[in-house]
Amino acid sequence: MPNLEKLDVSNATSVVDWSPVGELTRLRWLGFEDVGTIAAVDFVGRLTALESLFITGTAKVGDGRVAQLGTHPSLRKVRLAQARIHDATADQIERQLRSSRRRPA
Question: What pLDDT tens digit does each residue of the chain (105 aa) get?
């Protein structure tokens, strides 16, 4: 699975630790739908090719810390479950991602 570019996980509510997904460094698209609680999304920082992240349905980020996604080097699109409490909205994260790409290096 080291060449996996898309992972869509649905209804996997018995999974407790999602951090091993961070080893799939070629992922470009990652989706979690109705998976219960993802303790934290720190592992997303290791997904250097990731362009799209979807955390939808009843899925939620346990620690609520998603603002850090706004500094991800390759992430372009983020969708978060609307009714969940996070430290940033998907729109805020995407705005931060766009503005960081416009800054000169």
Answer: 679 999 999 999 999 999 999 999 999 999 999 999 999 999 999 999 999 999 999 998 999 999 999 999 999 999 998 766 788 888 889 999 988 776 665
β-sheet bridge partners, residue 79: 54
Contact residues for 102 (Cβ-Cβ < 8 A; gap 6+): none
In 3D space, the residue among 85, 32, 87 whose CA is nearest the CA of residue 56 turns out to be 32
The two three-digit tokens of residue 59, written as one number: 């899925």
Question: Can you read off the two tokens belonging to residue 1?
Answer: 């699975």
Q: What kind and span of H or E run contains 101? A: helix 90-102
For the whole model, what pTM was predicted?
0.85
What residues does each domain of the chain span?
6-86
Q: Which amino acid, one-letter code, is at 56? A: T
And the tokens for 103? 């800054």
Supply 45's token pair.
């920082």
91 by DSSP, 3-state: which? helix
